[in-house]
Give the backbone structure.
Amino acid sequence: MLQIEESSFHGGIGLWRLGFRPFFLGAGVFAVLLMAMWMEIYLFGWNMVPAGYAAPIWHAHEMIYGYGVAVIAGFLLTAVRNWTNVQTLHGPGLMALFVLWVAARVAPFSGSPEVAFLFDTLFMLAFTGAVLHPVVKARSWNQLVVVAIVFLLACSNILFYLGLTGLFPDGTRMGLYGGLYLVVAMILLVGRRVIPFFIERGCDTPVQLTERPWLDIAIVACYALFVIVDLFTSLPTLAALLAAVLLILNTLRLADWYTPGIWKKPLLWVLYVAYLWITGGFLLKAAGLFGHSPTLAVHAFTVGGIGMMTLGMMARVALGHTGRNVFDPPASVWWMFLLLAAGAVVRVLFPLLSVEQYQLWIAASQLLWMAAFALFLFVYAPILIKPRVDGRYG
């Protein structure tokens, strides 16, 4: 099924051959530009906020639906091809989808939230269709849960814009937190599939990790209940209790996945540490009952969890799907992972130690985030643009 017109694609650039290429490159560029703009707005008071948006709302939306969804698009448009053995978008179709994503990022600056609504919705629906098509064609129904998360992301994004335009009063909050929790759900789902797989095959010594089917079911059920309670009810105590249960369940999962050999492999420990940050997000969510700022839990999920997981997956997928050796990554990956890990610590933990220096911690974490993704672009942009080193299509 994958023997598409390979001969006509040899030579030139490889940017439009598979989804990870343009979307990982776009996500990297956007991660730097968006954070630089947010730094100028937050710290220096620059008036760069799109019309109709509050500055924190725009920042949160673009981190989730701009950066986060771009990485998910790049990953799924690549992984679904492997899962179904059906070719996903490539060539002009992939280019058109990417242009829609870019248009949705630029549209808020048109001065009309409705224009942003239009382009972002078109992109999300087109992305959903692009993932659904190979799943249906291959009748790979076990992958429908991934498609469902993408579709729910599209619905949450619509809720956000309905709130932004005043058509649904609570839509902005529900759209932002719904998007955040759906991205975390994608990490929990895909992480369960790939992290133990990578660890067992990536360590220098043989490893056999523990599997607990009951734990997988418990995490899914408890997380679904947590999201429903936190989004749709006014029961913060129950949400905190469910977060505490998720903390315990995911700590057990991390214990099952742990082996000392991961610390020698940056493409392994970055994923493990990212999952650890997701677990820390549940800890801070539960601690919200005792007066801790809810933004600390949010940034544990985002900077530490989503940030490190997406950077780690981009670094690994880009190597593996361009014919390079994932067991021998560029030495610089250590530095970009350490920079982002430091940024998460500064953003989430330092305010707990000294809230008086809050703006300093935010500035430091912003700089560390930008440095990590600038290094990613420096190392990986040529890898993403050039054809595979083994001459295959992809």
Notes: The chain is about 75% helix and 0% strand. The radius of gyration is 20 Å. The chain has a mean pLDDT of 94.
